[in-house]
Write a structure and sequence with these properties.
mainly alpha; membrane; transmembrane helix; Cbb3-type cytochrome oxidase assembly protein CcoS; 2 helices; Cyt_oxidase_maturation_cbb3
Amino acid sequence: MEVIYLLVPLSVAFLAFAVWVFFWAVRSEQYEDLEGPAHRIILDDREKRHETAARLPAGSRPAAPAGTARDAGGDRHPEPPA
């Protein structure tokens, strides 16, 4: 029963810390742009491909990395294991 005298203040301190972290995140605008980083990754990849294609001689095209949508495409519906 004496452990409650320790756990209740620790719980209150943890709650106060969690509330402080939440308000810090809101004040520092951590929640302002939730979708931007996800779109930035996609757009950054496209920009790199266009830069690479612009540097290559006419008529040559870089090979698509394995596992992308531009490979053979035969693995969309793989056969179930026997």
